[in-house]
Protein backbone atom coordinates (compact mmCIF):
# COMPACT_ATOMS: atom_id res chain seq x y z
CA UNK A 1 0.00 0.00 0.00
CA UNK A 2 1.28 3.47 -0.91
CA UNK A 3 1.22 5.22 2.50
CA UNK A 4 1.86 8.83 3.49
CA UNK A 5 5.21 7.68 4.88
CA UNK A 6 6.24 6.15 1.55
CA UNK A 7 5.13 9.31 -0.23
CA UNK A 8 7.35 11.36 2.08
CA UNK A 9 10.30 9.02 1.43
CA UNK A 10 9.80 9.33 -2.32
CA UNK A 11 9.43 13.10 -2.01
CA UNK A 12 12.82 13.26 -0.31
CA UNK A 13 14.51 10.91 -2.81
CA UNK A 14 13.10 12.75 -5.80
CA UNK A 15 14.17 16.06 -4.30
CA UNK A 16 17.73 14.74 -4.07
CA UNK A 17 17.49 13.49 -7.64
CA UNK A 18 16.44 16.92 -8.91
CA UNK A 19 19.39 18.43 -7.03
CA UNK A 20 21.62 15.90 -8.78
CA UNK A 21 20.18 16.96 -12.15
CA UNK A 22 20.79 20.61 -11.34
CA UNK A 23 24.40 19.95 -10.35
CA UNK A 24 24.94 17.79 -13.44
CA UNK A 25 23.51 20.46 -15.75
CA UNK A 26 25.61 23.21 -14.19
CA UNK A 27 28.68 20.98 -14.24
CA UNK A 28 28.40 20.09 -17.92
CA UNK A 29 27.71 23.69 -18.90
CA UNK A 30 30.66 24.94 -16.87
CA UNK A 31 32.94 22.26 -18.31
CA UNK A 32 31.85 23.13 -21.83
CA UNK A 33 32.46 26.85 -21.34
CA UNK A 34 35.81 26.44 -19.56
CA UNK A 35 37.36 23.51 -21.39
CA UNK A 36 35.55 23.28 -24.72
CA UNK A 37 35.10 26.91 -25.73
CA UNK A 38 37.48 26.38 -28.66
CA UNK A 39 35.48 23.39 -29.93
CA UNK A 40 33.92 25.21 -32.88
CA UNK A 41 37.27 25.89 -34.47
CA UNK A 42 37.81 24.07 -37.76
CA UNK A 43 38.64 20.45 -36.98
CA UNK A 44 37.50 20.74 -33.37
CA UNK A 45 39.12 22.09 -30.23
CA UNK A 46 42.09 20.83 -28.24
CA UNK A 47 40.17 18.28 -26.19
CA UNK A 48 38.22 17.14 -29.26
CA UNK A 49 41.49 16.37 -31.04
CA UNK A 50 43.00 14.66 -28.00
CA UNK A 51 39.99 12.34 -27.73
CA UNK A 52 39.98 11.56 -31.46
CA UNK A 53 43.69 10.73 -31.37
CA UNK A 54 43.21 8.54 -28.30
CA UNK A 55 40.37 6.61 -29.94
CA UNK A 56 42.63 5.83 -32.89
CA UNK A 57 45.01 4.05 -30.51
CA UNK A 58 42.37 1.80 -28.90
CA UNK A 59 40.28 0.77 -31.89
CA UNK A 60 40.10 -2.95 -32.57
CA UNK A 61 37.77 -5.23 -34.52
CA UNK A 62 36.13 -6.55 -31.35
CA UNK A 63 35.69 -3.11 -29.77
CA UNK A 64 34.46 -1.72 -33.09
CA UNK A 65 31.68 -4.31 -33.17
CA UNK A 66 30.61 -3.52 -29.61
CA UNK A 67 30.65 0.25 -30.05
CA UNK A 68 28.82 0.13 -33.39
CA UNK A 69 26.10 -1.97 -31.73
CA UNK A 70 25.78 0.49 -28.84
CA UNK A 71 25.75 3.41 -31.28
CA UNK A 72 23.01 1.87 -33.42
CA UNK A 73 20.93 1.11 -30.33
CA UNK A 74 20.44 4.87 -30.11
CA UNK A 75 19.35 5.29 -33.74
CA UNK A 76 16.10 7.10 -34.50
CA UNK A 77 14.06 3.99 -35.32
CA UNK A 78 15.18 2.28 -32.12
CA UNK A 79 14.41 5.41 -30.08
CA UNK A 80 10.92 5.59 -31.61
CA UNK A 81 10.18 1.93 -30.88
CA UNK A 82 11.51 2.25 -27.33
CA UNK A 83 9.45 5.39 -26.73
CA UNK A 84 6.29 3.67 -27.95
CA UNK A 85 6.96 0.70 -25.64
CA UNK A 86 7.49 3.00 -22.67
CA UNK A 87 4.27 4.89 -23.44
CA UNK A 88 2.32 1.62 -23.79
CA UNK A 89 3.73 0.37 -20.50
CA UNK A 90 2.63 3.52 -18.70
CA UNK A 91 -0.83 3.30 -20.24
CA UNK A 92 -1.15 -0.35 -19.19
CA UNK A 93 -0.25 0.69 -15.63
CA UNK A 94 -2.79 3.54 -15.81
CA UNK A 95 0.00 6.11 -15.63
CA UNK A 96 -1.50 8.42 -18.24
CA UNK A 97 0.21 11.61 -17.04
CA UNK A 98 3.58 9.87 -17.02
CA UNK A 99 3.02 8.49 -20.53
CA UNK A 100 2.14 11.92 -21.87
CA UNK A 101 5.05 13.52 -20.03
CA UNK A 102 7.55 11.06 -21.49
CA UNK A 103 6.19 11.35 -25.03
CA UNK A 104 6.00 15.16 -25.05
CA UNK A 105 9.47 15.62 -23.62
CA UNK A 106 11.21 13.12 -25.90
CA UNK A 107 9.55 14.79 -28.89
CA UNK A 108 10.42 18.22 -27.54
CA UNK A 109 14.08 17.46 -26.90
CA UNK A 110 14.35 15.87 -30.35
CA UNK A 111 13.04 19.07 -31.94
CA UNK A 112 15.44 21.16 -29.87
CA UNK A 113 18.34 18.92 -30.89
CA UNK A 114 17.61 19.29 -34.60
CA UNK A 115 17.03 23.04 -34.26
CA UNK A 116 20.37 23.58 -32.53
CA UNK A 117 22.10 21.44 -35.17
CA UNK A 118 20.66 23.65 -37.89
CA UNK A 119 21.56 26.88 -36.08
CA UNK A 120 25.14 25.81 -35.31
CA UNK A 121 25.79 24.10 -38.64
CA UNK A 122 28.88 22.33 -37.34
CA UNK A 123 30.39 19.83 -39.75
CA UNK A 124 31.13 16.32 -38.57
CA UNK A 125 34.72 15.19 -37.91
CA UNK A 126 36.77 14.02 -40.83
CA UNK A 127 38.23 10.54 -40.70
CA UNK A 128 37.29 6.88 -40.70
CA UNK A 129 33.61 6.56 -39.81
CA UNK A 130 32.32 3.17 -38.68
CA UNK A 131 28.68 4.11 -39.44
CA UNK A 132 27.00 6.13 -42.18
CA UNK A 133 25.16 9.32 -41.27
CA UNK A 134 24.40 12.75 -42.66
CA UNK A 135 23.52 16.11 -41.18
CA UNK A 136 25.36 18.35 -38.76
CA UNK A 137 27.41 17.41 -35.74
CA UNK A 138 26.49 19.62 -32.75
CA UNK A 139 24.85 18.50 -30.55
CA UNK A 140 24.84 14.72 -30.75
CA UNK A 141 21.22 13.68 -31.22
CA UNK A 142 21.98 10.22 -29.89
CA UNK A 143 23.55 11.69 -26.74
CA UNK A 144 20.80 14.21 -26.03
CA UNK A 145 17.82 11.90 -26.62
CA UNK A 146 19.27 8.84 -24.88
CA UNK A 147 20.31 10.89 -21.85
CA UNK A 148 17.01 12.77 -21.66
CA UNK A 149 15.08 9.50 -21.88
CA UNK A 150 17.30 7.89 -19.27
CA UNK A 151 16.99 10.78 -16.81
CA UNK A 152 13.20 10.79 -17.11
CA UNK A 153 12.98 7.01 -16.69
CA UNK A 154 15.22 7.15 -13.62
CA UNK A 155 12.86 9.69 -12.06
CA UNK A 156 9.88 7.39 -12.56
CA UNK A 157 11.81 4.33 -11.37
CA UNK A 158 12.70 6.15 -8.16
CA UNK A 159 9.06 7.25 -7.89
CA UNK A 160 7.32 3.91 -8.30
CA UNK A 161 9.72 1.08 -7.46
CA UNK A 162 9.41 0.26 -3.75
CA UNK A 163 12.60 -1.81 -3.62
CA UNK A 164 15.09 1.02 -3.23
CA UNK A 165 18.21 -1.05 -3.84
CA UNK A 166 16.76 -2.46 -7.06
CA UNK A 167 15.65 1.04 -8.09
CA UNK A 168 19.18 2.38 -7.61
CA UNK A 169 20.77 -0.53 -9.48
CA UNK A 170 18.42 -0.19 -12.46
CA UNK A 171 18.90 3.58 -12.48
CA UNK A 172 22.69 3.28 -12.51
CA UNK A 173 22.58 0.74 -15.35
CA UNK A 174 20.28 2.98 -17.41
CA UNK A 175 22.48 6.02 -16.79
CA UNK A 176 25.66 4.16 -17.74
CA UNK A 177 24.13 2.77 -20.94
CA UNK A 178 22.83 6.20 -21.99
CA UNK A 179 26.33 7.57 -21.39
CA UNK A 180 27.84 4.79 -23.50
CA UNK A 181 25.50 5.62 -26.38
CA UNK A 182 26.85 9.16 -26.39
CA UNK A 183 30.48 8.08 -26.08
CA UNK A 184 30.03 5.47 -28.81
CA UNK A 185 29.24 8.26 -31.26
CA UNK A 186 32.70 9.68 -30.69
CA UNK A 187 34.26 6.24 -31.00
CA UNK A 188 32.60 5.50 -34.35
CA UNK A 189 33.92 8.82 -35.65
CA UNK A 190 30.76 10.81 -36.36
CA UNK A 191 30.94 13.25 -33.43
CA UNK A 192 33.40 15.28 -31.41
CA UNK A 193 33.38 14.76 -27.65
CA UNK A 194 32.12 18.35 -27.33
CA UNK A 195 29.05 17.35 -29.37
CA UNK A 196 28.27 14.67 -26.81
CA UNK A 197 28.94 16.83 -23.75
CA UNK A 198 26.85 19.60 -25.29
CA UNK A 199 24.04 17.08 -25.78
CA UNK A 200 24.28 15.91 -22.19
CA UNK A 201 24.20 19.50 -20.95
CA UNK A 202 21.09 20.32 -22.99
CA UNK A 203 19.39 17.10 -21.89
CA UNK A 204 20.18 17.78 -18.23
CA UNK A 205 18.81 21.33 -18.35
CA UNK A 206 15.69 20.29 -20.25
CA UNK A 207 14.87 17.35 -17.97
CA UNK A 208 15.58 19.33 -14.79
CA UNK A 209 13.14 22.07 -15.82
CA UNK A 210 10.51 19.61 -17.09
CA UNK A 211 10.66 17.38 -14.00
CA UNK A 212 10.61 20.36 -11.64
CA UNK A 213 7.34 21.51 -13.21
CA UNK A 214 5.95 17.96 -13.30
CA UNK A 215 6.86 17.32 -9.65
CA UNK A 216 5.32 20.58 -8.47
CA UNK A 217 2.05 19.74 -10.19
CA UNK A 218 2.17 16.18 -8.85
CA UNK A 219 2.67 17.42 -5.28
CA UNK A 220 -0.36 19.69 -5.66
CA UNK A 221 -2.43 16.68 -6.76
CA UNK A 222 -1.18 14.61 -3.80
CA UNK A 223 -2.05 17.44 -1.40
CA UNK A 224 -5.58 17.59 -2.80
CA UNK A 225 -5.86 13.78 -2.52
CA UNK A 226 -4.76 13.77 1.14
CA UNK A 227 -7.04 16.65 2.07
TrEMBL record:
<dbReference type="Pfam" id="PF01569">
    <property type="entry name" value="PAP2"/>
</dbReference>
<feature type="transmembrane region" description="Helical">
    <location>
        <begin position="76"/>
        <end position="92"/>
    </location>
</feature>
<feature type="transmembrane region" description="Helical">
    <location>
        <begin position="14"/>
        <end position="34"/>
    </location>
</feature>
<feature type="domain" description="Phosphatidic acid phosphatase type 2/haloperoxidase">
    <location>
        <begin position="99"/>
        <end position="211"/>
    </location>
</feature>
<feature type="transmembrane region" description="Helical">
    <location>
        <begin position="99"/>
        <end position="116"/>
    </location>
</feature>
<dbReference type="InterPro" id="IPR000326">
    <property type="entry name" value="PAP2/HPO"/>
</dbReference>
<keyword id="KW-0472">Membrane</keyword>
<keyword id="KW-0812">Transmembrane</keyword>
<feature type="transmembrane region" description="Helical">
    <location>
        <begin position="136"/>
        <end position="158"/>
    </location>
</feature>
<keyword id="KW-1133">Transmembrane helix</keyword>
<protein>
    <submittedName>
        <fullName>Phosphatidylglycerophosphatase B</fullName>
    </submittedName>
</protein>
<feature type="transmembrane region" description="Helical">
    <location>
        <begin position="196"/>
        <end position="214"/>
    </location>
</feature>
<dbReference type="InterPro" id="IPR036938">
    <property type="entry name" value="PAP2/HPO_sf"/>
</dbReference>
<feature type="transmembrane region" description="Helical">
    <location>
        <begin position="165"/>
        <end position="184"/>
    </location>
</feature>
Amino acid sequence: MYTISSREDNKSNLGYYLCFLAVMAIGWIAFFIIKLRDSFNAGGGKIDKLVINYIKTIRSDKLNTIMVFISKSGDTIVAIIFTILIILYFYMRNKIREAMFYAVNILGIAIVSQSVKFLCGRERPEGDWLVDIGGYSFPSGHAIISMAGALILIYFILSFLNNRILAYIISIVIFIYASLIGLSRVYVGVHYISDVIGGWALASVWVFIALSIFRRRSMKNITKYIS
